[in-house]
Predict the structure of Hydrolase of the HAD superfamily.
Amino acid sequence: MTSDKPQTLDDEPDLSRFAPVRSWVFDLDNTLYPRHTNLFAQVDVRIRDYVQRLLSLEPDAAQALQRDYYRRYGTTLRGLILEHGISPDDFLEYVHDIDHSPVAPDPALAAAISALPGRRFIFTNGSLRHAEKVIERLGLGPDFDDIFDIVRADLVPKPHADTYARFLRENGIDPTSAAMFEDLARNLEVPKSLGMATVLIVPRGTEEVLAEAWETEGADGAHIDHLTDDLGGFLGQVLAQIRTS
C-alpha cells in the first residue's frame, strides 16, 4: 500500500506486496482463531485467579493489577517476574490449563496456510503447549516450521524489539520478505519498521467485543498495511494474487 492509512474492510485490497513473501508469521490468540471464540477469556480468568492467590488480593484488585501489568509490560507474567520475582513455569502451566474445545476446525484456513509459498511460523506471547493445542483443534497439524513462544523469547514479550530480533535471528528470516498477522496493532509497529508486510486481524463484522481501549489504539496507523476480519479468506485472496502475478 502507498497510503498512510490502512485499507478498510470494504476496500479491494492491493496485495502485490505479498508476491515476494516467503516467511509467513502468525500470532496465535485471537489471530489464528477468531476473537468471538472467547478462548482467551478463559486464560484471562485464570491469570486473575493466579494473581489473586499469589498476592492475597480481592478479585477486583487482582484484575486491576493484572491489567496494569499487561499494559505496562506486555504480559502479566512479565510484570509478576519483574515486580515479584516469580518463577514462570507454574504460572504458564496454570493459566493455560483451559478447555480448548471452543476452537473449531477451520479447513479453509488450514488449506490456505498449507498453500502459502515458503515457511510458516507462530510467534506468540503464550506457551508452546497452548499453541500446540490450538493448532490441533484448528486442524493445522504440521503446517508450521516453528512455534516461537514466550519461553523461547526469554520471557520478554512482544512488542519488545529485542524479542522480534531474536525470533528473526533464530529462524533466519529476512524481514523484507516476510509478513506478520496480529490482532494487536501495537505488536505490528516493530515488524513494519523492519520492512515486514503487516496485517491486523479485527473482530468479525459488527459483533460486540469487550476490549481495553489501549488494545485497539493504533489500528488506523501507518504501520498497518491491511485489515481483515477473515484470515482464511484474506489468505485465499493473497494466494490468488500470487498465482496470477
In short: The first strand starts at residue 23 and ends at 26. The longest helix spans residues 39-55. The chain has nine helices and six strands. Residues 1-5, 208-214 have pLDDT under 50 and may be disordered.
